[in-house]
Amino acid sequence: MENKKIAVLLTCFNRKSKTIACLQSFFQAYIPEGLKFEIYLVDDGSTDGTSDAVKDFFPQVNIIKGAGNLFWAGGMRLAWRTALERENYDAFLLLNDDVVLHNDFLNHLIETDKYALKKNKKTGIYSGATIDKNTNQTTYGGYGLITNHFVVRSKLLTPKNVPQQCELTNANILWISKETVDTIGIFDEQYTHGIADFDYSLQAIKKNIPVYLAPNVGGICVHDHGENWKSHYTSLKERIAYLKSPKGLAYREYLYYIKKHFPLFLPYSFVMLWLKTFFPFLWSRFKN
């Protein structure tokens, strides 16, 4: 591959050991010839010594301080904007700081970049799949969309030995080309924490930008999201707070996302969110 400069983007908050393990796995990974990386890490107000530890172990990392109110999407936007202001990068590699990368993860992303360029005559977005180290089950990566007249669902794809087209991508490991950023910019400002990565891949598809799940597995990451509703054992006040929380159901942001990309499913989504909140017992029984 010809010389390319890549910005690596991460954000963190109070999980020092995971952040250090992620960075260590990156620096231990095989770097294909011709690639140069610069890392931008937003520390959004950590009190566990994350920044000091990163400075000690990896002084080459650019640390950007947040005030503690950025959450994930906000932290990633700050890292991204900082990188764009400092350098004209050829691509951006977004990483979640709880991923432990496989040694050859970059090979799979570069393979996908070449595949996209050959097949689509343009570069795009490529997600690297992660697995649970205990079960070997896929935890994050790329998704295919399944729709009917009433609801839109997604199916997590299992990585193969070739790139696979997908509609939704997690940003646990996500390569985004300069061509993509020049076309659609960075994460939508409407998102505080989650959803921003799904929204981004859907924006790309609307602009005919190729979106792929890279072949093989890029790293290890435990699926830690759990059930996306509070049980009926919690109070209604707690359930409504969870409905509105950026780290919960993110009511306003989720409906914005649905209206933006799946407007026909807005009524169902509205009912679904309130059903989860007011009648979680019924939801858990009949959701499938």
Number of strands: 13
Structural class: alpha/beta
The succession of helices and strands, N to C, reads EHEHEHEEHEEEEEEEHHEHHHH
Uncertain residue segments:
none
Mean pLDDT: 91
Distance between the termini: 46 Å
- Main beta-sheet strand count, sense and barrel state: 10 strands, mixed
Rounded to an integer, what's the Rg over CA atoms? 19 Å
| Strand residue content | 15-25%
Total helices: the number is 10
Overall body shape: globular
Helix content: 25-40%
Write a structural description.
Helices cover 39% and strands 24% of the residues. It has 288 residues and is α/β, with parallel strands linked by helices. The strands form 2 sheets. Strands 1, 2, 3, 4, 5, 6, 7, 10, 12 and 13 form a 10-stranded mixed β-sheet that branches. A 3-stranded antiparallel β-sheet has the order 9-8-11. Strand 6 (125-131) and strand 7 (138-140) form a beta hairpin. The mean pLDDT is 91.
